[in-house]
UniProtKB/TrEMBL annotation:
NCBIfam families: Por_Secre_tail. InterPro entries: Secre_tail (IPR026444). It holds the Pfam family Por_Secre_tail. It comes from Pedobacter xixiisoli. Residues 1-35 are annotated as: Disordered. It comes from the Bacteria. Residues 166-236 form the Secretion system C-terminal sorting domain. This is Por secretion system C-terminal sorting domain-containing protein. Residues 14-23 have a biased composition (Polar residues).
Length: 238
């Protein structure tokens, strides 16, 4: 049998006008058209008495695809996909692009092969490009046939470490913390054991806070700034 969507034509075996007998079971039409012995889905008579049969081939997809996601983390973009069934599935390929048009090979992940269960796959791009990264997921069967399943994108940004400082250090009656606006939400002053001795809530517009330390004994302390980012400074009271 020929390829999908082929058309088979079989002759009527009646003499033509010139006395010749047309060739029976002749085939033409789309690529891979069959010539005889077809199991057809239906037929119709043409105007010249030729019966035209059409057929289709049932194709079993090697993968029942469920989802594909790309999510940016602090240091990588994490890729995740799932299938609900696999048949003769060799492996998956992932290609990467910065424009969504020109893709380059990035990774290959071994598949389960044959399965009727939900399967999950994970892959991390630990060196993503700054900006939007596009990922194209494809499936490859045992015969080497490839099918693109999905394309996803994720925005990767390098987060700047917020600047912060403390002074004076060493300190006596008070110690100050300076920081960038809108980054931190709280400042804690703790001792060596980790016990928090004082806390200050930081407003969005705030860039400075002051701890009163005149009653503190000599020793080593820590000021921890926390919020969208965190920063810890060691301070000393002589």
């Amino acid at each position: 049998m020929g390829g999908n969507g082929g058309t088979a034509v079989t002759g009527n075996n009646q003499p033509g006008n010139n006395g010749s007998t047309p060739a029976a079971n002749r085939g033409h039409g789309g690529s891979g058209a069959g010539v005889s012995g077809l199991s057809s889905l239906g037929g119709r008579a043409g105007s010249d008495g030729i019966v035209i049969f059409t057929y289709t081939e049932d194709t079993v997809l090697p993968v029942s695809f469920k989802l594909f996601t790309a999510k940016a983390g602090a240091n990588a973009i994490n890729l995740h996909w799932q299938t609900t069934a696999e048949s003769a599935n060799s492996h998956f390929t992932i290609k990467r692009s910065t424009d969504g048009i020109n893709f380059e090979s990035f990774a290959s992940v071994e598949a389960k092969g044959n399965s009727n269960e939900t399967n999950s796959y994970n892959l991390a791009d630990k060196k993503p490009n700054i900006g939007i990264n596009y990922y194209q997921l494809a499936q490859v069967d045992y015969n080497g046939n490839t099918k693109i399943l999905s394309t996803q994108s994720a925005l990767f940004e390098v987060k700047k470490t917020a600047n912060s400082s403390v002074y004076p250090n060493p300190f006596n009656s008070s110690v100050n913390a300076n920081f960038e606006q809108g980054i931190f939400e709280k400042a804690d002053l703790s001792d060596l054991s980790g016990k928090v001795l004082a806390s200050i809530a930081i407003e969005k517009e705030q860039t400075n806070c002051i701890f009163k330390t005149d009653k503190f004994t000599s020793g080593i302390y820590f000021i921890k700034l926390s919020g969208k980012q965190s920063s810890t400074h060691k301070v000393i009271k002589p």
